[in-house]
Amino acid sequence: MNSPKIICKRIGYSNITLLINGADSVLIDTGVRGNLQRIKILFRQFNLTPSDIKLIVLTHTHYDHTGNLKGLKELTGAKVMVHKNEFENLRTGVMPIPKGIGIYPQFITAVARWFFPKFVSPEPVVADLINENEFDLGIFGIDGKVISTPGHTSGSQSVLLGDMLIAGDTFVNMPNGRIFPPFANEPDVLLNTWQTIFNCGVKTIYPGHGKPFSTEKALVGFERWKKKN
């Protein structure tokens, strides 16, 4: 098994992550719609052809993580993996707006649910692979696995590579230092997910928004949010 090179790149206002492993490379999330050309340039920058991407893993199906999925699936021929709890959301293109955490996010959620109920929804795509709990990436020659990390959404999942976690919106890293996502359907479940992640010995977290950070920073936030919940 190989330990792939990890390249995390902001596309729009969310991150995509490349696991570079030659002709068996993996892409995690696809960024905000309208950035397909930027992703093509990223492939070329690291000497990848589109067909080198064999798998696209979706950490969840919100629009800012699935925006270029349809174009990338057609371009690369890669298989698309989604968690079983969000397979239908991706297939139908209907994804519920998550609960806001805090006064301002709650206001945004209330307005969006009333006026723009499909605001966070993806463009419909039928996934090729469904992860129920854990998926071994060894089939793609990568020493790692996709794990279920619910809380932000019920079908959130992350990629675990040794002591590194590509986390989607299970964590964020905002300019104000916030790491607990401002939107989460089940905050208590998310805190339990965090505890499970810490128990796995994760040292570095690649969030869906913002720069990678150490688990030590997450632990501080964990204790603070436990008191609030």
Give a written overview of the molecule.
- There is one protein chain.
- The chain contains seven helices and twelve strands.
- Helix 6 runs antiparallel to helix 7 (215-228).
- It is globular.
- Strand 3 (25-28), helix 1 (36-45) and strand 4 (53-57) form a beta-alpha-beta unit.
- The strands form two sheets. It has a six-stranded mixed β-sheet, covered by helices on one side.
- Helices cover 30% and strands 24% of the residues.
- It starts with a strand and ends with a helix.
- It has helices at residues 36-45, 63-66, 69-76, 87-92, 103-115, 187-199, 215-228, and strands at residues 5-11, 14-20, 25-28, 53-57, 79-83, 129-131, 134-136, 145-148, 157-161, 164-168, 204-207, 213-214.
- The chain has one domain (5-228): Metallo-beta-lactamase, Chain A, CATH 3.60.15.
- The protein has 229 residues and is an alpha/beta fold.
Return the domain count: 1
CATH superfamily: Ribonuclease Z/Hydroxyacylglutathione hydrolase-like
Q: What gross morphology would you assign?
A: globular
Q: Bin the helical content.
A: 25-40%
CATH fold-level topology: Metallo-beta-lactamase, Chain A
Percentage of residues in strands: 15-25%
Uncertain regions spanning at least 5 consecutive residues: none
In DSSP terms (H or I, runs of 4 or more residues), the helix count works out at 7
Concise summary:
The protein has 229 residues and is α/β, with parallel strands linked by helices.
